[in-house]
Every structure is written in structure tokens, then in C-alpha cells.
Amino acid sequence: MIEVTINGDAREVAGDLSVTALLESLGLRPQLVVVEHNREILDRSRYGETPVRAGDNLELVHFVGGG
Amino acid sequence: MAEWQTSQDPPLEIAGRSFHSRLIVGTGKYRSNPEMVGAIAASGAEMVTVAVRRIDLDRTHEEGILYHLDPGSIFLLPNTAGCYTAEDAVRYARLGRAAGLSDWVKLEVIGDQRTLLPDVFATLEAARTLVAEGFKVLAYTNEDVVTALRLEDAGCSAVMPLASPIGSGLGLVNPYFVREIKTRLQCPVIVDAGVGTASDACVTMEQGVDGILMNTAIAEAGDAVRMATAMRLAVVAGREAYLAGRMPRREVAVPSSPLAGMLA
After folding, report:
1. B83, B109 in Cβ contact below 8 A?
2. Chain A contacts of B55, Cβ < 8 Å?
3. What is the ipTM of this complex?
4. CATH of the domain at B80
5. Which residue of B has its CA nearest to A28?
6. pLDDT tens digits for B95-151?
């Protein structure tokens, strides 16, 4: 297990996950999630090939109701 | 449709995209998602605003708006609501674009917590950055003519002066300057925020602006779906009245029936 920060909170996740696998492990549909990986927006086409490493900072955002 | 019923009003065009409805609605603050969906349908809006927020990993993920709205049938306009700096607004705009639906953004940079009035300096700075990155920027601003002109110069696709503070429902407090902004700008002018009820929407459209964006007036109405219907009709009524051209105001009565032919 490795420690990463997801949406501001420290979390333990498996050490060999891609971003796609991480999202799926959290019950999220990758096509509905925008990922900021260490302050860089990650293109959705790269979720599968991008590994999650110890100490990474991930922001997982989506659209919600707003004006 | 009989000839006299034919509206001469062309569609609203923003950044090369046509909209038949001049009403744009927000998706926030509804009591339930079915109510939101019903209100959007009743409003006739073809474009709705959405916010970009962290996913709450401890709750059901179905709070995501895409579980309830089909971006194939309604155009989603991501906003930068809640941002207080140009840097944050640019970050939120980029996140919204990364969702892959469009390169449009409703730019909003707040400068004051109590009034939620825009920070026009930061708004202008963010607008320049986003336009340079290829965004279609619809910029929320106050009813200041000079700021509106600068935002247009910066390449904004629409300039969106407020009617009154966000969520206040105070209606159109400054019709003169909103009218002046509309007169001076070439790009579409959409009044964003402050409308409280249907008469406010009607009066706003009567100033000649290209459209209205509203959220709270519908979402917080006793019956949101019914208010959405009222707003749809009010926007059309105000637009048609503007295009028709109102009669002159006179501080004297003028009879409507002929004076001739009265009985002796």
C-alpha cells in the first residue's frame, strides 16, 4: 500500500494502480471524472497508462449543480 | 402559423452557436434532481450552467450532474463560481474543459463575499488568459460600461452584467447602464443574476439585451417547474415587447375611443 492525497485527504491505496484502476476502485466511472494529477490536468486518454505513485496529489472533480 | 404571428426574431448566436431560447438557467440549489430536470424542461433553456467541484468520495456519486442531464440534448456551460482569484478561475475553467464537452466557460471571479460582486480586474485578467487558450468566455460582470467594453476587447464571446447581486432576487436595479452596455457592445449581452420573478425577467428583456441567465429565482420558487414556465414566457414577452417598440410615455391621458360620434 502507498499513501496518496485524494481531494485533500490522505488515503492508503494499492501500490500498483493506474489512474483508471484507482478511479474504479473508488467506484467512479472514469469518463465522468476529471483528474488533476500533481496540479496538472491529466488527459482522459492517459488515465490507463498513468501510474499512481506514493505521495501523489490527486484532485478528482466532476460537474455538480451550479449557477 | 398566420403571417402576423411570425416572429422576426433571429436565434441568439454566441460564439457561432445558435440558441432559440434566450433563457439560460443554472442547475444549483434545487430541492431534488427530478425537480431540476423538470424545471429545465419547462424553462425551454438550451444551455445550463454547471459547477466544477471535488467528488465527495464518502457519498453516493450520483450527485454528479451528468447522472441527470444528457449533454447530448442540453448544452452544459461550466462556471468558475466560488473563485476569488484569476488563477483559481483559470484552473477551474481548465478542469471544466477537460471534461471534454466544450471549450466554453462562464467566467466568474468574485471580489466581495457579502455582495458577491465581481472582481472586475481579476475577471479581465482571467478572460485574457482563457481567450488566449482558446476558450469561449462568457464573462459575468457588474453593470459597469467600461468593464464591459474591456471584456469585449479581451475577446469574450458574451458579456454578462448582473441585474442585481447573485441570489438576491432584487430584479433589475440599473436598467439605464444595462441598456447602455447593450448599445455599446457588439457581442451578445446576457444579464446574469438578480432576477427574482417573471416581471423582472420581462423588464430586463425589454431593455434589449440578448438573453438572461438565472438560477435562484427558479430553484427557490415555491414551485420551481411552474416558475420556470413563467420565466420562459416572460423572456419571450419581454423580447417581443422590445422588438415591437413600446408606445411613448405621456404624463397625460389620451382617450382610446373616438371623440367624434358622441350623443348630443
Report:
1. yes
2. 7, 28, 33, 60-62
3. 0.94
4. 3.20.20.70
5. B61
6. 999 999 999 999 999 999 999 999 999 999 999 999 999 999 999 999 999 999 999
